[in-house]
Amino acid sequence: MARTTDRSTTHLTRRLVQLYVGLALYGVSSALLVRAGLGLEPWGVLHQGLAELTGISIGVVSIIVGAVVLLLWIPLRQRPGLGTVSNVFVVGLAMDGTLAVVGDLDALGVRIPVLVLGIVLNGVATGLYIAARFGPGPRDGLMTGLNHITGRSIRLVRTAIEVAVVVTGFLLGGSLGVGTVLYALAIGPLAQFFLRLFALPEASGPGATVASGEPSTPAPAGGSGPVAAPTSGQAILPQ
Questions:
Q1: With contact defined as beta carbons under 8 Å apart, do 47 and 69 qualify?
Q2: What is the DSSP string of 68-102?
């Protein structure tokens, strides 16, 4: 019994470390895309546009937007997990911290490798925090909530959200460019690869399901119809 408890505790500790390392790296990767100056990921375009409009740092804008999106979960009847709430704060703080350390980059020969590094690191971060299974990020929950309410496919709902986000961010002054296109093409395969790489084994032994907090049902496929609202331990892989 003691060995089972020890294994469950170790498993939970590993998941927590993986969650917070992943979220921190996500913020670092987003900051690198900003410094590369060749185009941001869809939500990054919106965050940058709002930062330009308000004069607030892009990391703080990310936190505010994440909190507002999380409030939209209430009418959509979504249930946040530890990873959901942590996502709101950790990513923004890590982003501002990285921007404070990494200054502006001028040479294109430096900006291109930084762009590529940012995209790859974003894939690593996505695989880490999703594989930890502590709940989807606020924006993923918005996607699955709208999927459940409207009956439209995950793919269609996510595309509609990100097109609206990119257009709004661009009109506000956000950076849209080759990096945005490269990110859109690369992030799916990268996230899928690193999700498998960082996948954690199921906790074994009596009471392991309770200790790990893992869902008993898998996440829906990207092109599926309406799905049930994710549990606190369920995450959706970005399409």
A1: no
A2: HHHHTHHHHT----HHHHHHHHHHHHHHHHHHHHS
Could you tell me if 22 and 127 are in contact, meaning their C-beta atoms sit under 8 angstroms apart? yes
How far apart CA 51 and CA 199 sit, in angstroms, is 35
User: What span, in angstroms and rounded, lies between the C-alpha atoms of 146 and 123?
Assistant: 25
Structure letter (DSSP) for residue 218? P
Quickly tell me which residue has 């894939």 as its tokens: 123
Q: Are 232 and 79 in contact (CB under 8 A)?
A: yes
Angle between helices 42-54 and 58-71 (to 10 degrees): 110
Which residue, among 66, 28, 32, 22, has the nearest Cα to 46 in the 3D structure?
66
What is the model's pTM? 0.81
pLDDT digits (tens, 9 = 90+) for 117-130: 999 999 999 999 98
CB-facing half-sphere around the CA of 218: CA atoms within 13 A: 5
Helices (H) and strands (E) in the chain — how many of each?
10, 0
171's CB contacts (< 8 A; 6+ apart) are 49
